[in-house]
Amino acid sequence: MIHALINKQPVEVPEGTSILDAARLVQVRIPTLCKHRDLLPTAACGLCIVRNKGSGRMLRACSTPLEQGMEITTHDSDIVEVRRSTLELILSNHPMACLSCGRNGECELQRLAADFNITHETIKRYVKDVPPDVSTDSIVIDFTKCIKCGRCIQVCQERQNVWALSFLDRGIGTRMAPAGDISLADSPCVKCGQCSAYCPTGAIVEKDETAAVWSGLHNPEKVCVVQIAPSVRVTIGEAFGLPPGTNLTRKLYSALRRLGFTAVFDTNFAADLTIVEEASEFLERFVHKRGELPLITSCCPAWTDFMEKNHYDFIDNFSTAKSPQQMMGALAKTYYAQRAGIDPARLFMVSIMPCTAKKFELSRTHEMHASGHRDVDVVLTTRELARMLKQSGVDFLDMPDGEADSLLGEYSGAGTIFGATGGVMEAAVRTAHFYATGKKLGRLELESIRGLAGVREGKLNLSGTELRVAVAHGLAHVETVLERVRQARREGRETPYHFIEVMACPGGCIGGGGQPYGVDDERRRLRMEGLYSDDRGRGLRYSHENPELQKLYAEFLGKPLGPRAHELLHTEYTARPLYRK
Fold first, then answer.
1. What is the tally of helices (H) and strands (E) in the chain?
2. What's the rounded Cα separation, in Å, for the pair 202 and 77?
3. Is 228 helix (H, G, I), strand (E, B) or coil?
4. If 0-12 CB within 10 Å is exposed, 13-18 middle and 19+ buried, where does residue 387 land?
């Protein structure tokens, strides 16, 4: 253990702890723009400078370990003046476009400029006129707002293993851009949006489509319906000052109706549907030996894109079940439209989703027109929904509790935990076990596959046979799991896993690229607990027991994996080049 003083306050930390982290233990906040709790230090911004007694040089707190006997000063007149000058230099290469920026009010640079009372220009401003990259339907890069902190590059390369972004050129000409200086659409980008989640400014944001939704709501020819993803209910409150994990499901139902939506569906219902189809597909492969093992989940569109580009040797292992968003869109414009007597051409389906990749998912045209129409018309992130609620004048937190529409709204606890890493696997195992044995699991919570470790494994008995499962989240961890399967194939051994869940974003959907800013592992844990708490509190905890789902199969779909289910709820995959030509 290291013993030292920070601003004359004694602190004891394990060896190797940075000065920045040690300072937090004595309630001292050292400003920084480049360091994020999830990421390794780069010392790029220079704001976290501190002084050690007896030394004439300043240390960068994010990258300097606290040493025995240090007496650190984090704030004095000289240090504050250097920080202010550093901020002024950063601002001299930054556009003054705060009012029209997607991060206005949530920008880390803006907040620090206010903290240091920077009210006017002291250094002549020079901002290079570079057009934004709007080549994708998911993410917008405004290069003029980049402060070269390197967060987006680190998360894209090291945490996601995508390598779509990099630093180009050197010295004063250094800039962030898609690798090879090509457009983002032509790069290996999978549209997960983690770059936007970690960017401290408005340099990378989601493509805002709130105007399209307002237009639909104000169009008398349209019948607007909406679906809410599992994780959104425990994250939307953060945009209104509530703690992470606060469950606002029923307030969301009421608020969305107040915005003008004719029907409010819950994507949890479609998550239950996904589980029934996927569990049935798994048992076809595991019990009846019809199909490749392991079965790999397919509900995450960023992971689907990554697989088709990087791991297409596993296409035969991929579940053909569409994502819950896609299933809900197809059912809204078939089953719901028929029952409500509405021309599906008039239906305008909006999805509230945790990630930017769901916007990209709409471009998978062979999947998104199962109803004969565009199944989902617009995807909004959690952040976009928060902006719409604030624009509308609806007092969201004071809204009375509401209900989802009965046709596509009832859900189980298994559908809820879909939003957390490991949740899809846990929900599928619950139903698969019952289908195979006719008995419920003795313990519903599969603790071995819960948590935030990058790769987690579990085993259970299924009709006398050992079932081995694995969970990976954050695309950099996927290679570990898939390589174990490849190695077993090369050596002629049995697969080490029978069922694999993959989520592109750390933490799963609760850590999606379209969620409220400021996510770290502590927030991920709180958000996950909000979902697990909802699961524990529900009387219905198995997807296949959902009465509305049973009615859907009886009246419309027939049976799981049946002809109509395949037509509306299943898809196929194609190997694609890493770089688009």
1. 19, 17
2. 30
3. strand
4. middle
* Cα–Cα distance for residue pair 213/390, rounded to 1 Å: 14
- Which of 56, 72, 90 terminates a domain? The answer is 90
The Cα 59–Cα 24 span in angstroms is 17
List, as one string, the DSSP characters of 309-351: HH-GGGGGGB--BPPHHHHHHHHIIIIIHHHHT--GGGEEEEE
Same domain, 55 and 171: no
Query: d(Cα 35, Cα 248) in Å, to the nearest integer?
Result: 31
Q: Are residues 317 and 233 in the same domain?
A: yes
Taking the CA atoms of residue 502, residue 506, residue 508 and residue 511 in that order, the dihedral angle to the nearest 10 degrees is -160
Q: Which of 206, 235, 251 is the last residue of a domain?
A: 206
554 class by beta-carbon count within 10 Å (0-12 exposed, 13-18 middle, 19+ buried) = exposed
Please state, in angstroms and rounded to a whole number, the distance separating the CA atoms of residues 414 and 324: 13
- Scored b (16 or more CB within 10 A) or e, 228-263 reads bbbbbbbbbbbbbeeebbbbbbebbbbbbbbbebbb
Q: What pLDDT digit, counting tens, does each position of 23-34 carry? A: 999 999 999 999
| Residue closest to 210 by CA, chosen among 386, 458, 63 | 386
pLDDT tens-digit readout, 272-309 = 999 999 999 999 999 999 999 999 999 999 999 999 99
Q: Is 577 among the domain residues?
A: no
The model carries a pTM of 0.94
Those residues with Cβ within 8 angstroms of residue 420's Cβ, 6 or more apart along the chain or in another chain: 231, 450, 507, 508, 509, 510, 527, 528, 531, 532
**Per-residue pLDDT tens over the stretch 370-428:** 888 999 999 999 999 999 999 999 999 999 999 999 889 999 999 999 999 999 999 99
Under a CB-based contact definition with an 8 Å cutoff, are residues 472 and 481 in contact? yes
Spatial contact of 17 and 66, defined as CB atoms under 8 Å apart: yes
AA identity, residue 208: D
Catalytic sites, residue numbers: 278, 281, 299, 319, 358, 361, 367, 509
Mean pLDDT of 109-134: 92
Closest CA to 459 of 421, 428, 424, 497: 497
Residues ≥6 apart with Cβ < 8 Å to 84 = 116, 118
Distance CA 573, CA 320 (A): 8
DSSP bridge partners of 227: 265, 351
Of 353, 454, 413, 429, nearest to 545 by C-alpha is: 413
Distance CA 540, CA 536 (A): 9
- Asked whether residue 579 is assigned to any structural domain, the reply reads no
* 12 sits in which H/E element: strand 9-13
